[in-house]
Write a structure and sequence with these properties.
With 146 residues, the protein is an alpha/beta fold.
């Protein structure tokens, strides 16, 4: 039975099928790939200080006021992206009907993704590497898992 390898970070998702050629050598085929717009860019680029984030300069007789400061915005965006990635993994593993699969996700998001996977999908996870391998060439992916 074929194995699936999934490499993800907050902006990229790649899935590969690992099969064998007639001589028993592994063949790696890209079966899914997309880039997430929300995962790209800095938080400061997504926010605007329009509507006067700080009215008044805080000088003598003035009070500096902050409106809608993004205290937990970055962590909420990360949680949302982890959930989306987990949903995509769940759908892909069910669709491919594979017996086992491998995951490589950046250290910052790895545990969050694993926690959000469905029980049946998580049970088939054979290897988990907390590393971002999204930019690794297809020919080199397999060596990280053997």
């Amino acid at each position: 039975m074929d194995t699936i390898i999934i490499t993800v970070d907050l902006g990229h998702f790649k899935a590969y099928r690992v099969a064998s050629d007639p001589l028993g050598r592994p063949i790696i085929e890209l079966i899914a790939s997309y880039d997430s717009i929300e995962g790209h860019g800095k938080l400061s680029e997504k926010l605007s200080d329009t509507a006067g984030r700080f009215t008044g300069g805080g000088g003598e007789g003035e009070v500096a006021k902050g409106y809608g400061e993004p205290h937990h915005l970055e962590s909420e965006i990360i949680k949302k992206l982890e959930k989306m990635i987990a949903m995509d993994i769940n759908a892909l593993i069910k669709k491919e009907r594979c017996e086992s699969w491998y995951l490589a996700a950046g250290e910052k998001i790895n545990n969050g993704i694993i926690k959000k996977l469905e029980t049946g999908v998580k049970a088939k996870l054979e290897k988990n590497i907390p590393a971002d391998l999204t930019k690794v060439r297809k020919s080199e992916i397999l060596r990280h898992f053997v």
